[in-house]
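Tubulin tyrosine ligase like 10 structure dump, as promised
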Amino acid sequence: MHTSTCSYIRDAGFISGCDPVQTSSTWPLPHLSEGEPASDCRCKETRGVQKAPFRMNHPEEKKPDEAPGSGPFFYLGGANGVDILNVYCKSKGWQRIYDNRREDFILKWCETKFRDTYYNFREGEQLLYQIPNNKVLTTKIGLLMNLREYERWGGLVPFGTDQRKDLLQPWLVKLWNSLLQDGATLMMEEFFPETFRLDTKDERESFFETYTEPQIWICKPTSSNQGRGIFLLKNQAEVNELEAKLHSLEEDPQYKKLPYKIPPARIVQRYIDKPLLLEGKKFDVRSYLLIACTVPFVLFFGHGYVRLTCLNYDPRSEDLTSHLTNQYVQKKSPIYALVKEETVWQMDRFNQYVNEKFRQAKGLPKDWVFNGFTKRMKEIMLQCFLAVKSKLDCKLGYFDLIGCDFLIDEDFKVWLLEMNANPALHTNCGALKNIVPTVVNETLGKQVQMVLGTRGRLGWWGWDERRTSRASASCLWLRLGKVRKRPQTATPTHPVQAQRNEQPSQSCYSAADPSEATSPTA
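structure tokens r here:
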């Protein structure tokens, strides 16, 4: 079992042993839609980007009679992780409400975003799950376009175009320049598979010209999850068929009548056809990016788990269950019930396997999973966040849990596959029962501590090594640091607001160099 450690990571990279320093005041940018360049780019609005829909009003919901009480109240919408969330909130003495139109909640956690919830949100007094425009990070096209923009500008404005560089605190400029010299800013080709958009004519024509056999490409809808709508392109005939379908759509008379003639929002991405295998099976790694606070930004990295396929890997197989690792797809396999406990590994098991099978053969350092691999995931997450930071809607009380999926190829190169809003919190196998509840508990615990600032009244579920018998069942988040300072406002009158600048308890976070962070966390 590894020694538990935490690490501070500043906005632009890894810094150890010191408290976060905030940046200078910022000026708001006009609202930018998914994939749209920042205002400094002076570009026209990116074509073919569809906004993720908001529900205008709350749907009616069948609800039990609510017992009278003085609160605090919490509301849960949807089924994803609802039992775990309910247990945590009630352990704090909170009361659940079922009327989604009520505004007197302290926490609202919903799978679907409702516009009126954000309109009526009381900043500094409530917690609201999901940043309203998180699609700039969690849709395929949003992430692609923002990474491209960030790379095009060389990452030279690390704290967003909402700040003039001459007003940045000197240490931030010095830090960022040193990181650039050290190669800390990654090129997309180093971690993101080659990708084309199919909803823009120039890009899809570039893809059709680029494709040659026997390449394999994977086609994904921009906003779907659970493997829905995904298919592989394995030969020229399948590529030609896709091209013909898109052309047919554009020539359809009904389509031509539409005011905005936008093909389906999809991407096509080069398939990593030589992945590292675990016992002959394809796998990827689900990790977490917790945006615990947006005023200022406070980010955490959290280990998750390894997802494996039921069947041995065959790159030419027509069966998607040998290519896609998520549990929704794997449940469709006829042998899932027999092998489901082997389709999810905890990170300590993965680390042990790599040590035994690959350490000497590939010349890897001991515990590469918790050192080199973890550091690379944090670097990639941080770069993705910096690419969208200036575009995110920010209010004190907004928070988000992002599921980040990584693949390792046979040369141990780490690839980011996608970033997902509202990641699955199901516990349908033993490993997930050890991991997911802790992820949820510590996610909410950090909101109580840092945003509500009511540790004395509601209690703070801090890290306690005695609470778990396995290190991998813990969720000791590795801190990515505060990266934005809110403009000075009038002195708050609400007691919760007055405590919003409290620093996290030092007993919960210890400074450590990220290269030494070897504790497997969930």
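The chain has 16 helices and 17 strands.
lmk if u need the other ones
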